[in-house]
Amino acid sequence: xxxxxxxxxxxxxxxxxxxxxxxxxxxxxxxxxxxxxxxxxxxxxxxxxxxxxxxxxxxxxxxxxxxxxxxxxxxxxxxxxxxxxxxxxxxxxxxxxxxxxxxxxxxxxxxxxxxxxxxxxxxxxxxxxxxxxxxxxxxxxxxxxxxxxxxxxxxxxxxxxxxxxxxxxxxxxxxxxxxxxxxxxxxxxxxxxxxxxxxxxxxxxxxxxxxxxxxxxxxxxxxxxxxxxxxxxxxxxxxxxxxxxxxxxxxxxxxxxxxxxxxxxxxxxxx
Length: 271
Fold this sequence. Notes:
The protein is of the alpha+beta class. Helix content is 47%, strand content 23%.
């Protein structure tokens, strides 16, 4: 009789163990599923956040090392804006407008990234890109101008595509200026991004507007010109007074860049 109760007790223990293991397995499967969903959400969050903040910044935010706390930085700012696009949109289907813009932004962002530029704002049909904002870059002026020249070539290629689709072609103006800005991660708990604040941005936007007055597509300021060498072919433009500035702004039109020119030969057509 004692053996019977002993065996019954052991059987009950084994049954309880089986039930317990089964419960643990189900809990483990549920936990794995929850972790999987959490990882998917995290990946989507990183993807969406990456649209507002450069990947390098995201990595440092995750590490909480404080590298991108707001501080003054010497940065080269590129501002680009499409000419006559708003009026063009009035006679086009909205979906068509979005398709054209998306293709344009994609082509321009790739051109800028190929020369170490970070696109930080897409404003209507405008683009704000920074050079030397994330880390010190002694060649930021050259990178910015090379990025703008790459944008010019990319736009020519994109216009060929638009023409083949019987769509209107685009033209832009680009202004580049270098100076001090307050740069860092800004925002609130709901939305944060890496951004810049300062008069340097306003000047870059003013210089872009001057491309319409000078009937050209790419202008730089004296501060940017000082960072270029003889491989860049540029022309000095007549000074123009702009809103908010006491003195007229001197700009230079950038023709092109020739990598094989001897640096010992002067090619700047400036005084």
